[in-house]
Amino acid sequence: MSETYDVVIIGGGPGGYNCAIRCGQLGLKTAIIEMRDTLGGTCLNVGCIPSKALLHASEYYAAAKNDFEGMGIEVSGLAVNLEKMMAQKDEAVKGLTEGVAFLMKKNKVKHYAGKGKIVGKGEVEIELNAGGTENVGAKNIVIATGSEPASLPGIEIDEERIVTNTGALSLKEIPKKLTLIGAGVIGLEMGSVWSRLGSEVTVIEFLDHIMPGADAEISKQSKRIFEKQGLKFRMGTKVTGIEKLKTKLKVSVEPAKGGDEEQLDADVVIMAIGRKPYTAGLGLETIGVGVNQRGVIDTTDHFKTNVEGVWAIGDCVAGPMLAHKAEDDGAAVAELIAGKAGHVDYDLVPSVVYTSPEIAWVGKNEQQLKDAGIKYKTGKFPFMANSRARCNHETEGFVKILADATTDEILGVHMLGVGVGELIGEICVAMEFKASSEDVARTCHAHPTLSEAIRQAAMGVEGWTMQM
Ligand code: FAD
Ligand code: NAI
C-alpha cells in the first residue's frame, strides 16, 4: 500500500468533500477519491448548481418578457441565446468545482482522481483516471458515493432526446415539445426552466398530486400557479414506453389505475422519477457491508455500517437526498471519527424547490401531525398582504406556521412565495432552539421585508395577526 490514512473518503460530492474539510480541520490524515474529473459530486456538476444557474437566468428572461413592462421598463429585441446561457451555467460550475479542489489543498486533503473500490478491511484500491491502480490503507473508510437517477424498464436513456438531469441541463436546442416524467422537484424545476425559454411542457405524474412530501395545501396552490405559467400536468398517469422516431418521440401513457393507452408527441423526454443510491463497483460485498432491497446502505445510529471502521453518509444512506443533509452528515461523521459528538437532526432538514414562486418547508406538515395524533394550531399569512411583496408585484403564496396546541412550540412551517428559500433559514434556527410561535411573533423583523410575513403568520397562531 502506497500510503495509510486516518480517513479515506470515497466520493467527492457535498457529503464527501465536507467530510474531508472537517477531517482536515480536526487534524486527521485524510484522502478523498472521486471518479469524475472534477470534485463537487452530483450537486455541483449536474444538480443543484447548474440547475439554479439556469433557473436564475430563465427567470430573468421570463421577468423581462412578462413583468418589466408593468414596472415601466420597456425592452425591445429580447431573445434567448442558449449557448451563452449554458456557458454562464458552466462558468458557475467550473468556479465552484475548482473552489472545492482549492479547499482540499487548504485542508491538506489528498485528492485521488479515480474510482475507489474496497478490496479488504481497511484497504481501498483506486483505479486511477490517469491509468493504473494504487492501493491505500484506511483506518476509517467513509462511503459517500451518492445517487443516480432511477429509470423505467424498457426506456433507454441516451442523454440527448431521452435524458436525465444530466442531459436536461445541457440541451443544445430549446425543445418545442418537452415531456417530463415525474412532478417532483426536478420535474418542476426543469419544467420551469424550459417552459420559460419557450418549450411546450407536459409533466406526467403517477400520483394525483404534485410534490409528494409537500404540505397538501402548498402542493394544490402551487400546481395552479405552475399551470398559469404554462406547465401542463397529466396526473394519475404512467408512462409505459417511448418509441424513438427519426424526428420525434412517441410517449405511451395510460391511467395509473389502468385504462386505455394514449400516445403523446415529444421532442425531448426528461426522466425525473426519483434517485437511487449509487454503489456500483464499490466492493461492498467484499467486506460484507449491508444494503437494503433498494440498495440503500444500512447504517446504525451515527453513520456506522455493520462493518467496523466503515461509515456511510449522504444520498447513499437513508434520509432526504439533499446536498445540505449530505454536508451535515459529512461534518458529523468526521467529528465522530475524531472522537467528538457529531449529530444531525433529520427532523430539521429544510426542503426548497427553486421554482417561481419558491416552495420551502421544514418540520412536519398538517397530514403528518394528524397521522401522529398531535394537536396543533395554525397561523397563516398571505404575501398579498405583505408590503414588500406588493411593492415587488410578487404577491403569490403564503406562510403557514403549525405550532403545538399545548406548548406553542413550532412543529412545521410551509411557505410558497418569491424568496422563501432564503426565508426558511430563520425558521430552521428558531426550531433548532425549540422556539414557540410567540417567540417569532415577538421578534422584531425589518420593514418592509418578506420576512414580516413569517412574523404575521406567527402572530396568527394566537389569533393576533395585525396586518390583515
Ligand atoms: P453526490 O453528490 O452524488 O456525490 C457522490 C460522488 O461520488 C459523485 O461525484 C460520484 O462520481 C462519486 N463516486 C461514486 N462512486 C465512486 C467510486 N466508487 N469512486 C470514486 N468516486 C465515486 N439538493 C439540494 O439540497 N438542493 C438543490 O437545489 C438540489 N438540486 C438538485 C438538482 C438536480 C438536477 C439533482 C439531480 C439533484 C439536486 N439536489 C439538490 C440533490 C443533491 O445533488 C444531492 O443530494 C447531493 O449531491 C448528494 O451528495 P452526496 O455527496 O451524497 O452524493
Ligand atoms: P422526486 O422524488 O422529487 O419526484 C419524483 C416524482 O416522480 C414523484 O412525484 C413520483 O410520484 C413520480 N413518479 C415516480 N414514478 C413515476 C412513474 N413511473 N411515472 C410518473 N411519475 C412517477 O424525484 P426527482 O424529481 O427525480 O428528484 C430526485 C431527487 O433529487 C429529489 O428527491 C431531491 O432529493 C433531489 N433534488 C432536490 C432539489 C432541491 O432540493 N431543490 C432539486 C432537484 C432534485
Overview features:
FAD/NAD(P)-binding domain; 468 residues; five-stranded mixed barrel; single chain; binds flavin-adenine dinucleotide; five-stranded parallel sheet; 3 domains; binds 1,4-dihydronicotinamide adenine dinucleotide; alpha/beta
Chain-wise SSE layout:
Blueprint: E1 3-10, H1 14-25, E2 30-34, H2 41-46, H3 48-66, H4 82-106, E3 109-120, E4 123-128, E5 133-143, E6 147-149, E7 162-163, H5 165-168, E8 177-181, H6 185-196, E9 200-204, H7 216-228, E10 232-234, E11 237-244, E12 249-255, E13 262-266, E14 268-271, E15 275-277, H8 284-287, E16 310-312, H9 323-337, E17 351-353, E18 358-363, H10 366-371, E19 376-382, H11 387-392, E20 398-404, E21 410-417, H12 420-432, H13 437-441, H14 452-461
Parallel strand pairs: 1-2, 1-5, 2-3, 5-16, 7-14, 8-9, 8-14, 9-10
Antiparallel strand pairs: 3-4, 4-5, 6-15, 11-12, 12-13, 17-18, 18-21, 19-20, 20-21
The structure holds flavin-adenine dinucleotide (FAD) and 1,4-dihydronicotinamide adenine dinucleotide.
Residues 10-16, 33-36, 41-43, 47-48, 51, 115-116, 144-147, 165, 186, 278, 281-282, 314-315, 321-324, 326, 354 line the site of flavin-adenine dinucleotide.
Give an account of the 3D structure.
This protein is an alpha/beta fold. The chain folds into three domains: 3-149 and 276-346, 3-Layer(bba) Sandwich (FAD/NAD(P)-binding domain), CATH 3.50.50.60; 162-273, FAD/NAD(P)-binding domain (3-Layer(bba) Sandwich), CATH 3.50.50.60; 357-461, FAD/NAD-linked reductase, C-terminal dimerisation domain (Enolase-like, domain 1, 2-Layer Sandwich), CATH 3.30.390.30. Helices cover 32% and strands 26% of the residues. It contains 14 helices and 21 strands. The protein has a five-stranded mixed beta barrel. The protein has a five-stranded parallel sheet with strand order 7-14-8-9-10. α7 links the parallel β9 (200-204) and β10 (232-234). It starts with a strand and ends in a 7-residue tail after the last helix. 1,4-dihydronicotinamide adenine dinucleotide binds next to α6, β11 and β17. The site of flavin-adenine dinucleotide has 36 residues, from α1, β2, α2, α3 and β3.
